[in-house]
Amino acid sequence: MSVVNKMLKDLDNRAAHEDGDGSDYREPSESKRIRYMIIFIALVGVSAASYFSYRAVGPEYFLDLYAQAKQIVSGEEPKQQQSKKVSVNSALDQMMPTRGNSTSKETEEKVETAKAGTSPEASIESDNSESTTDNAQVAQEVAEVSQAPETETSRESSEAGAEAVSQQAVNIPVPNLNNVVPGQTLVPGQTDDSFVQVTNTDSADAQISELTSLAAQAVAENNVSRAIEIYRQILNIDFKQHEIRKKLAVLQYSNGNNGAASVVLSDGISIAPQRVDFRLMLARLFYREKKLRAAYTVLEGVEPDVQRNIDFYGLKATVAQELELNAESSHLYGRLVIFEPNRAQWWLGLAISLDRMSQRDGALKAYENAADLRQLSASANDFIRQRILELGG
User: Fold this and answer.
1) Inter-axis angle of helices 276-288 and 152-169, to 10 degrees?
2) I want to staple 359 with a disulfide (CB 3.0 to 4.6 A). Which of 74, 250, 334, 354 is the partner?
């Protein structure tokens, strides 16, 4: 109606000027204002819609559309996006494990083994099963432990690793020392038979800094063997470079040299027995090799803070349960549920340990808590429901 009224008003204005030819008619200023206001509001609406669309899909969407349109105009077929190459550097970035990282597959395998006999004596697989043997996950899980003296098992593993390293050393090229200036440092070059002289430095710290940069460059180029040699040289300069030691162990493991990695980590434990990360790394390496007793011995005798070392206690509880140390595993899982009561994985571990010790009431309550959290797989939940019924729940 307002539009009709406006049109009628315009007609009245024109009628007032009918004595003329109509060419001098001027639209009222109020009408112009309304028109400009409508145009302004429309522009604001279009801008807002464009902005929110951009925020919703992101800039990559518009860049992809532009690239595809450009290819179509030029007569080319749109190319599929190629997957990025995973570098050693990305594996090193994942060295530190995410807190309490556990997949549904790991829990499912744990339950499947427990299902082999629904009695409390049923054996159980570990949380860190074969699904974690991938190198990227190894690098991700490779850190967080503490103290304890070197054990017979770890010493035997160290000797085996040292033997493997000595065999590799036969193929290491001998550098030409004719033109070496005293005070300079040799590091492996880009090729296997070449070496690079590091600039003369005044202190060990300066040498380490320069070598660390060269190692980082080698890692970025996926030159694992060169990075390993440089990291070894840094440890020869200063054996207390603990972060370098961890990176060296990760590279050796990812390169398939478990023996050398265990030697490096065992040496780290001997040098710094209070460090939790070396112990956790070595225990995980032993665990993947099915050396359960060795893994448990590495973790034994240390009591780091639970809240800051969930991965340490999670692995220790898993290994203890596989070794059928039910009292110890129930104690460890009991500590875990205190600090992380919303983790169904811990409640399930506690339930199975108590179940094996015929502590029906405690096991029943733990199974019920695990079921209530609704975090486990369908097969795990089926197993829990079965045990709850059999325990009289």
Assistant:
1) 80
2) 354
Give dist(CA 228, CA 88) in Å, integer: 12
200, 193 Cβ separation under 8 angstroms: no
Structure tokens at 365: 């309550």
Query: Going by C-beta distance under 8 Å and a sequence separation of 6 or more, which residues neighbour residue 290?
Result: none
| Tokens read off for 275 | 């460090």
Which of 32, 280, 346, 298 is CA-nearest to residue 153?
A: 298
Tokens 């494990």 belong to which residue? 97
Q: Give me the residues paired with residue 195 across strands.
A: 188
Which residues in the chain land under pLDDT 50? 4, 18-25, 57-63, 65-66, 69-70, 72-73, 76-103, 117-187, 189-197, 199-201
Tokens of 32: 């112009």
Please, which residues have CB within 8 angstroms of residue 140's CB and are 6 or more apart in sequence? 94, 95, 96, 97, 98, 101
Q: Which pair of tokens denotes residue 356? A: 């094996």
Beta strands in the chain (DSSP E): 185-188, 195-198
309 phi and psi, to 5 degrees?
-135, 50
Q: What are phi and psi of 186, to 5 degrees?
A: -100, 135
Question: In one letter, which amino acid is 169?
Answer: A
